[in-house]
Amino acid sequence: MARSEILPREYELKLAGTARDLSAFKRAVNLISKDRQDWESVDLETRYFDTSEQRFFKKGIAIRVRRAKEKFTQTIKADRGGGGVLDRTEWEQSVKSSEPELDALPKAARKKLGKLSSGALRPVVSLEVRRQKKIIKRQSDDGPDLEVEAVVDNGIVQAGEKIKRFSECELELLQGGPAQFFQFVTEVHNACPLRVSRITKSDRGYALLNEKVAGSVKLPKFDLNSTQSISITLCDIFNDCIGNIIDNEAAAFDGRDPEGVHQLRVSVRRLRSSLSVFHRFIEAERVTELKEELKWLGSSLGPAREWDVFLSETLASVEGYGIDRRNMSALATLAKQHRRAAYRLVRTTLRSDRYAKLILRLTAFAATEGWLSESSSAQLLSPIGEHCKSILDRPYRKLVKAGNDLKSLTPAQRHQVRIKLKKLRYTVEFLGGLYKGRNSQPFKKRMAQLQDQFGHLNDVAQTMHLVDALMRPSHDFSLPNERARIAGGMVLGWHAHHLHEIERSLFDDWSAFRSVAPPWRLGKTKTS
User: Fold this and answer.
1) Which three-class secondary structure state does DSSP give residue 503?
2) What are the two backbone dihedrals, phi and then psi, of residue 181, each rounded to the nearest 5 degrees?
3) Are 426 and 278 in contact (CB under 8 A)?
4) Do residues 317 and 373 share a domain?
5) Within 13 Å and on the Cβ side, how many CA atoms surround 460?
6) Would the pTM of this model clear 0.85, i.e. be above it?
7) By residue range, what is the domain housing residue 186?
8) 56, pLDDT greater than 60
9) What is the pLDDT of residues 496-508, one digit of tens each?
C-alpha cells in the first residue's frame, strides 16, 4: 500500500472478561469519565459471509452485514496487524437487506477482496448480541478533543448447529490521538484490569465453525526495509511480539500444546532483546520497568518449558537404550507432577492483574512510540539502513571476543558465550532480512548449527538440574521411589557420556562459524 493512500481505519482495544467483569468495566468507565448516565442498549444481528473454502478468513478479511433495529450496515474489515490494538482497514456502508452488496463497495475495498464470482459468498457465522455503549468526550488543550466509544457485548455466536455464548468489551478511538486514548484507557484499566484480547467476533465464529481448539502460533519472520525509520522498526517488532504473546495465551493456559508456552516465551525474550539491541537509541528510564516486568513474565513461564522439554525430548532421547521401561515410567510420573505445578504457575500468571497491566503497558508503549524523546527523536526517526551495520556488528564482536579460545573456557564461561550467541541471533532475526541473498545464507546456517550445539550442552546442564530437583525431598511432590532413582541416575549417565562428543562438535561448529563473514560486512541492504 502506498504511504500516500489514505484508507478508513478502525482503532480499538478489546478486553476479555466474563459477564461479571463487564459490569465492573462499566462502573470503571462511569467513574473515570465522570459520567453516570445510562448506557444506550441495542440488539444486533450479524451475519458473516465467506466462500465455501473460507477464502477471506484465510486472508484475514471479514465480510459482514449487521442489523440494528431496521437498519442494515455492511462492513469489510482487513489488514489486522500485530499488537494489542486492533488497527484495521474498514469500509462501512448502509445496504438494503441482510445480504451483502459488493457492487456498491469503493474501489479500494473491491481491490482488497479480489475477483469474486456471483453467488460465491454464503453466510457462515451468525451472532445475536445485546450491546451497551456510551460515548466519552474529553477536552484537549492541544489538538482535537478526545472521543471514545465504550462498548459492552453479551451474546451468542452460531455456526451451523453449534452455539456458544460470549462476553467482551472494547474501547474504540473515534477522535483524538493515541496518547490521549491510552491515557484514558490506562485510567479505566487501573480500575478494572481485564486482559487485552485480539479475538474478534469473526474469530469466535470461525473457531466454532471449524471446531478449532487452542493451538500455538509461531511469530512470522520480520520483513523490514532499510528506508524505514528505527522508530517504525521498533513498532513492527513490538506489535508482532505483543500480538504473538496474546495469540498464544489460550494454548499456554490450556497446556496440551507445549508450543503455546514456548512461543509465548520466545516473544517475551525477543521483546527484551529488542530493548537491548536498540538500547543506545532509547533513554534507559523509559524501559527499565518494562524490562523488569518482561523478565518476571519470562521467569514465570520458564519452569513449564523446562519440564515440557524434559518429558518430551530428554526422556525420549534415551528410550530404547536399555533403561527399564518401568523405571522410566516412574521417573516420568514424578516429572509430570512438577510439570503440573509449573503450569499452575503459568495459569496464575496469565490470570493476574500484573500480567494484564504489563500487556496494556506494552501495547500503549508501541502505539504511542513511547521510546521517542526530545534527545533521541532525531536518531530514532532516521532510516534503519544507516545504523543496521553497527547494530548487528556490536553483538557479533562481543560474541567473538567471549568465545576466543573456546576449548579452554569453563562451563560457566561457555554459558555466557551461549547467551551472547542468542543475543546475536535475535538481532539477526530483527535486521538480518535487510541482507538477503547469497551472502546471508552461509552465515545464518553456521550460526544455527552453532546454536544447536550450545543448546545440546545447555540441555545436559538443565537435565542435571531437573533430575536433582526430582530426587530432593519435598512437601509438594511425591518422594522418588527406587525405580525413579535408578532411571534418574541412568539418564544423567547417558547425557554425561555424550558430553565429550557434543563438545567436539561444538568446537568444529565454532570454527566453521568464524570462517564465514557476516553478511552486513559484505552486502548492501535491500530497500523494499
Assistant:
1) helix
2) -60, -50
3) no
4) yes
5) 18
6) yes
7) 9-212
8) yes
9) 777 777 888 899 9
